[in-house]
Amino acid sequence: MSPFETFLIVIAIIVVVVLVLVVILPYLKRKGVDIEALIAQVKQALAATGNTLDTIKPFLPGIVGVDAFDKILKSAAVGVGNAEKLYLIGNLPPERRKEEARKFIKDAVTLAGVVVTPEVERLIDGAIESEVLKLGHALKPADEPGGPLPVDA
């Protein structure tokens, strides 16, 4: 298996985790399953997923996508945190948090030498969603506006 194939497998695993959060959690809540315990397990899985790239990166030398993905993840943590802080002190309306985080991340990765393509924008959006979940915002039921997951950064 080539290093690029390994990288694609890691990305596929991350996508599956996000899809499970979007589809399975609302279904389980309707069935009466204890979502709080599941959320605690998901948070642990997200933390492990974030560390996975750091673990496998030495085995994937010279793959541009890994470095770009790493830069996106690090910029997302700072960008989402910055947007949230601006919101909390009243300098940013809540509906502009995701836009502000996205702008910060794009600027940061561009300065780091990453060309922003549609694929990179999708990675940025996914990284924003992951970071928002790490903030600990409450999940909304699927039938409420914005549910099942908070989509604004």
Descriptive tags:
mainly alpha; 71% helix; flat
Provide structural commentary.
- By secondary structure, the protein is an all-alpha fold.
- The protein has one domain (3-135).
- It is 71% helix and 0% strand.
- The protein has five helices and no strands.
- The chain has helices spanning 3-30, 35-56, 64-88, 97-111, 118-135.
- The protein starts with a helix and ends in an 18-residue tail after the last helix.
- Mean pLDDT is 78; it is low at 148-153.
Question: What's a quick, concise take on this entry?
Answer:
The protein is mostly helical.
Tally of DSSP helical segments:
5
How large is the share of residues in beta strands? under 5%
| Secondary-structure-derived class | mainly alpha
- From the alpha-carbon coordinates, what is the Rg to the nearest angstrom? 16 Å
